[in-house]
Amino acid sequence: MPDTDSVIAQIAECAVDYTPDSDLAMDTARLCLMDSIGCALLAMNYPACTRLLGPDIPGTVVPGGSRVPGTTFQLDPVKAAFDIGAAIRWLDFNDTWLAAEWGHPSDNFGAILAIADHLSRKSRLQGKRPIGVIEVLKSAVRAYEIQGVLALENSFNLVGIDHVLLVKVASAAVVTVMLGGDRNQVENAVSNAWLDATLRTYRHAPNTGSRKSWAAADALARAVRFGLDAMAGEMGYPSALTAPDWGFQDVWFNGEEITLGHPLDSYVMENILFKVSFPAEFHAQTAVEAAFTLYEAVSPRLDEVQSVTITSQESALRIIDKTGPLTNPADRDHCIQYMTAIGLLKGSLSADDYEDAAAADPGIDQLRDKMVMEHDQRFTDDYLDPAKRSIANSVQVFFSDGSATEKVTVEYPIGHRRRRDEAKPLLVEKFRANVATRLDDVKVEQLTELFSDQAALEATAVDELMDLLVPSES
After folding, report:
1. 3-state secondary structure of 425
2. Quick one: DSSP state of residue 300?
3. Could you tell me where the DSSP H helices lie in 154-198?
4. pLDDT in single tens digits along all 474 residues of the chain
5. Interacting residues of 90 by C-beta distance below 8 A, sequence separation 6+
6. Displacement of CA 210 from its chain's centroid (Å)
7. CA 108 to CA 88: how far, in whole Å?
8. CA dihedral 341, 327, 36, 289 (to 10 degrees)
9. Helix then strand then coil, % of the chain, to nearest 5
């Protein structure tokens, strides 16, 4: 067999040997878990999501299986990883990472929670100590790091590959360790994940569709499958990246090398981006904030609007600059003009604003038709600068009488590390509001209190936390 590719070996080393020792990373992991669970419970209110959930054979219950938050389902870990991941991701409200590639590291919680819950219940059945939430948080730090560092300098979207490949790689690594895998078994699982690249056709016109909301879930189920297979002795492919002609680099990257742009530690978790106040593709978050600022000046004069200029970064112009009809919620929540129009019309934005009923408002397309997109090279440079990682947008509205609003520029969205203290109480309120859509007041308060106490949360058994997320009427 060939030597193991360096990148695969480094990923396995991080998954097996790295122990997070950053208080900031662990505190942020707590917020990420809280936020992800809240997003999952909110998604339970949308039938397009819930129709995909549950056992493949209706009525099946798996003893010692994994709970799916907000439901009564207890499933095998592969299907549970899909269900949890789909719920977390469905409304595009979970955390984000932006670099040469982008993605949502909290997607990894789908696999991590499914495996941790299963292992915790299995331990109880065997009379052993259950798995603590601290292991979920540590695994999350590792998974975020693997996915995020791979995204720093490698642009998979430029060659048409969906970023959920990185979720698959990261989750395959950490769940294999959680299952007891050694470095060789982790390398086997990770190498299989690299062979699973998928197209991102479903994220772009004219084919934008709901698969973008469950693509990460599919990646998570595959990652868990690869971990279980590795533990059963299934082989890996050591030069999956570098093999001549047939390896990932030659087939997909024109021979360019996949690189790790930062030591694998806790950089990504410490700098993760939260979607705090509204669900929107992250490159547009600051445009929506700017629109909120302009709402009072613009809303009384909508009939007088002549044009709206949005100044943005290159990545936003490439992936969410859309004109013409938008056919479904998945199309709308990836259109910067649509999201900005809602902000100017309402001064707010929620998941319901992407649904067909809200989109029927003719005022939205009237504003979209008047929007002009411009590029600011400084915004792009600061977006790529590892010391800044800004996601800047400007919005300015011009009226038919020749007057104009101020040009409102927002450099850093509220979910950015530079605004973390401002965001924390709002994240708690977001969580409280989201879980209240599915759970009774007693559980809402119990969960809010638990997530406010780092030590208490870390000491809680995973299966006990997951049982708290079952609706009371069940």
Report:
1. helix
2. G
3. 164-178, 183-194
4. 899 999 999 999 999 999 999 999 999 999 999 999 999 999 999 999 999 999 999 999 899 999 999 999 999 999 999 999 999 999 999 999 988 898 999 999 999 999 999 999 999 999 999 999 999 999 999 999 999 999 999 999 999 999 999 999 999 999 999 999 999 999 999 999 999 999 999 998 889 999 999 999 999 999 999 999 999 999 999 999 999 999 999 999 999 999 998 999 999 999 999 999 888 888 999 999 999 999 999 999 999 999 999 999 999 999 899 999 999 998 999 999 999 999 999 999 998 999 999 999 999 999 999 999 999 999 999 998 888 889 999 999 999 999 999 999 999 999 999 999 999 999 999 999 999 999 999 999 999 999 999 999 999 999 999 999 999 864
5. 39, 43, 46, 48, 49, 213, 214
6. 15
7. 10
8. -10
9. 55, 10, 35
Q: Compute the half-sphere exposure of residue 223: CA atoms within 13 Å on the CB side of its CA.
A: 36
State the pTM of this model: 0.89
Please give the Cα distance from 413 to 284 (Å, whole number): 9
Length of the chain: 474
CA dist list (Å): 209 to 203, 279, 372, 428: 7, 17, 25, 31
Q: What are the structure tokens assigned to 403, written together?
A: 């007057």
Residue 190 CA to residue 169 CA, distance in Å, equals 5
